[in-house]
Design a protein that fits this description.
Length: 413
């Protein structure tokens, strides 16, 4: 199959796999839950894994398959499975792959709902160690015989910490542990997972990939690097001839089919459309984010700015090594612990909403909202303070964004 540059792939990849009916250029929305087999042997073969076919909408449809193909191609991966949301992708993967008695190592700098989910998982007899993922020694000290997964985010929100992916991947490989990376904040336009020892990519399609706040979705992408024959929990039923497929087969059955958090064909279609413009959106978002970070960094009402583009950022060097740009999320604290709620109320253009990766620039008071459920100790461990404001930078004209921030800050001084 011919390979093109990522921006080209995002608009053409799907056609490499499919001939749509009537010469349709876009993947049609396949709303049918059921699929007829004219010869009953066909459905037998499909159930027995001898033939690939759609059998029931919870497991697959042509629209979700089209999206999976694009994701696989963009990531130069082995295969992808889509889910109803990013959280569904994470939780389905864990339930499909882990057993009571297992141990996982998880970054302490995590998207709040992911963190909450891992606390819940610990109720099911799986031990979870939260660690400072930027400290590879601390991570390696947690490795045990039963450790199955190391889970990190490529760029954590709100404080934009970045793990050393080569060090993490090498550690994981040495102990046959799955190295899993949430790339929601580092989409393929800034991070090439294939160049790093990452085994499993998980991403919320809801954020940058769909990009326009109109569809929820998530995906697990198997980079094709993990040796599943070394993994103790692949059901003999799913130990198919091609050992590379073991993880994906088990995830499709135990994760997608049995848990049932299926991406709807309508959402898949919206995400397919959204991802076509990611490359264009990304350029604008990066340009705006760098300008805003530099502006806030000099502003007298601002205490600290967290964005990997700034030289003072603790992992600025890792950002340069691992990413082609610095990302569209940034956070900052207000000097004198001023009230972030009052500041955000002074903004006219920037929208107060909890979402990331939208075309619109969004602001959020952090501790009072997404970290509200966490204890003081947890908040301190995550490094979030009362006056923290998170921005998700959009594609507006930078002059308007800077003017809005200037206005809001002037009233907050
Ligand atoms: C939003 C988000 C998720 C969850 O995705 P949903 O599609 O909202 O379920 C997971 N990880 C990160 C880093 C996120 O930002």
């Amino acid at each position: 199959m011919k390979k093109y540059h990522p921006h080209t792939e995002s608009v053409h990849a799907d056609k490499n796999y499919n001939d749509y009916p009537d010469g349709s250029v876009h993947s049609p929305v396949c709303a049918s839950v059921l699929f007829e087999f004219k010869d009953a042997q066909g459905i037998v073969d499909a159930f027995q894994g001898k033939k690939v076919a759609h059998v029931y909408g919870r497991s697959s449809s042509s629209t979700t398959t089209a999206l999976q193909n694009v994701l696989t191609q963009q990531h130069e991966a082995l295969g992808s499975v889509t889910f109803a949301t990013g959280m569904a992708a994470i939780s389905s993967f864990m339930f499909a792959m882990l057993k009571q008695g297992d141990h996982i190592i998880v970054s302490q700098y995590l998207f709040g709902n992911t963190r909450s989910f891992f606390h819940q998982l610990a109720q099911f007899g799986i031990s979870v160690s939260f660690v400072d993922i930027t400290d590879i020694k601390a991570v390696s000290e947690q490795v045990r015989e039963q450790t199955r997964v190391i889970f990190a985010e490529g760029l954590a929100n709100p404080l934009t910490q970045i793990p050393d992916l080569n060090a993490l991947g090498t550690l994981a490989k040495k102990h046959h542990i799955i190295s899993m990376l949430d790339t929601t904040m580092t989409p393929p336009t800034m991070f090439k997972a294939q160049d790093f020892p990452v085994d499993i990519v998980v991403t919320s399609l809801t954020k940058y990939i769909a990009g326009q706040g109109q569809a929820l979705g998530g995906a697990i992408i198997d980079m094709g690097r993990f040796d599943w024959t070394q993994y103790p929990h692949i059901d003999p039923l799913y130990q198919v001839a091609d050992t590379a497929q073991w993880g994906l087969v088990q995830l499709r059955k135990k994760g997608l089919r049995d848990i049932g958090a299926t991406l709807s064909p309508e959402a898949a279609s919206a995400i397919l459309l959204g991802q076509e413009t990611l490359g264009l959106r990304w350029q604008k978002i990066q340009d705006n984010a760098a300008q805003i970070a530099a502006y806030l960094n000099e502003h007298p009402a601002v205490e600290t700015v967290f964005h990997p583009s700034l030289e003072q950022h603790e992992q600025h060097h890792l950002a340069l090594e691992q990413f082609s740009t610095f990302g569209g999320i940034l956070s900052f604290t207000l000097k004198g612990d001023k009230d972030p709620v009052a500041f955000i109320n002074h903004l006219d253009l920037i929208i107060c909403a909890t979402h990331l990766g939208d075309t619109r620039t969004l602001a959020l008071p952090v501790t009072q909202t997404i970290f509200f459920e966490f204890s003081e100790a947890e908040k301190t461990a995550m490094g979030v303070s009362e006056s923290l404001v998170r921005l998700s930078v959009g594609i507006e004209d930078s002059h308007d964004l800077l003017a809005d921030l200037a206005h809001g800050l002037s009233l907050s001084m």
